[in-house]
Amino acid sequence: MRATRYVLALREGGSLPGIVEADDLGTYVVKFRGAGQGRKALVAEVVVGELGRRLGLPVPELVVLHLDSSMASAEPDEEVQDLLRASHGTNLGMDFLPGSLGIERPDGVDPGLAARVLWFDALTQNVDRSWRNPNLLRWHGTPWLIDHGAALYFHHDWTTREAAATRAYPTARDHVLLPVAASARDAHDVLAPRVSAELLAEVLALVPDEWLDGEQGFGSAADVRAAYADVLTRRLAAPESWLDAVEVARGDV
After folding, report:
1. SS3 191
2. I want to staple 3 with a disulfide (CB 3.0 to 4.6 A). Which of 67, 174, 175, 201 is the partner?
3. What's the pLDDT at 13?
4. Which H or E run includes 144?
5. pTM
């Protein structure tokens, strides 16, 4: 899929995402590979977002979108020009939800859904769903989960991946849905059995090789995919190392 027109910069976030039209006639919120967070943020968006979608969580459709740097010549804003030039090639698009509004408080969110999201964020180490930055939209009455680029933060230093397999969820007490969430342990019992090796392989295969190639300490993109799968599999196999703390935090609310 190819980008056809850059529509508008979204300046709420530090990465300067933008609304972009594509040749499938769709409109997407695009996270650019040339932004400061780099390609690892895009990897996290795909892995976590697509895993969440397959577990039935409300995540907007994600696409890999090819952008030609020549698009920059039509933009008057120099910052946007630089970003587009630095983002030639594959970028990450999320289906644009027109008319959606940000959720700042968890009031009205179903406790079961809140528990599943809390569990999922703890599994994937998503540290960016706090009351400061909920990363939740309400669209047609339904909460939607967005912006997973800060998840899987162990991939910023792969030498820590052994510890990452059992690391506690550091931001559980700040999670925006904690006050309304039902049991995360119950959510684990339902969702964890669905995260099979085959499902992880399916999700990881959606990450373009070029976002994984050249990763220090790995010989190939396949090796990097295997490392992501290994960390997530081992977290699922040892939930007491992170799930207990989540339940304690929930009980303290």
Report:
1. helix
2. 67
3. 61
4. strand 142-145
5. 0.95
